[in-house]
Design goal:
Length: about 280
Amino acid sequence: MDGLFKQKLLSLRNPQSPKTFGEALLGDVSWLKKAPQRVAVAKAPAKEVFSEKVQVIESLERFAHEKTSELKTNILKVEGGEIHLRTEPGWDDLKQFDSAEKLTSHLKLDPHLLHIVLQGKRPNEVKALFVSETFRPWQEVAPELKSGLINELLAGFPLKTAELFERMIRAMKLTPEEVIIFPVEGNDGSDFASDVMEVAAFYRPEVIITLGAKATQKVLKSNDRLSLVHGQFFNRRMGEQDNFQVVPLFHPSIIETNQNMKKTAWADMQKIMKHLKKLP
């Protein structure tokens, strides 16, 4: 008995380090020792998937916009109630053009740049109108011209960024004939937003993709932060024509300098590809 007492006394004077977090937190309790220890299992990296809830909401929104546009009303009656569609700012005062020549003569962009970005484009064949924040001056672009789609992108971006954006476009399975890029602002700060929408009204792309905060705010007529609206579909009315789908993306220059943004950009691009039926 004396030996057992001395052993306990020594253990109190020289306590052992706790073996588990539970022992460190609760002390040496008998029921804790009997509790089975959990074995940590490494989880496989989660695959990025589209949220089913988000897809349902976006599909419902597009359905509501299509129906209200068809019925010329912002109220859609459904069984058990009504869906009231919020009125978004539209583009009601656009000029209509019956030929590409009349359109280009009206646009404010440098004629040399207009020729590069609109050459070979045909109405109803364009899938995506990319709206950049501004274009480079022709004097900068001319010495760098090569051939093919890269020339159109050089109008809007320095060479390195243009090459990245070309890879993005090809990853979206878009051909040069299906793409137009146009600036929302002139080099002198003049507003080209109405020109952008008149180009859209003539060529009728399936989606307008704004690149960066400035292009997004001008096309959507909104002050929403890009970080909150990127990758979402917005419906915009264009006079008496059908509504247009607008999707904001981050500017390629941000994607180029921030590697973490590539994953976000690719997820947004896949949504657009699905809308354009470029994904199975």
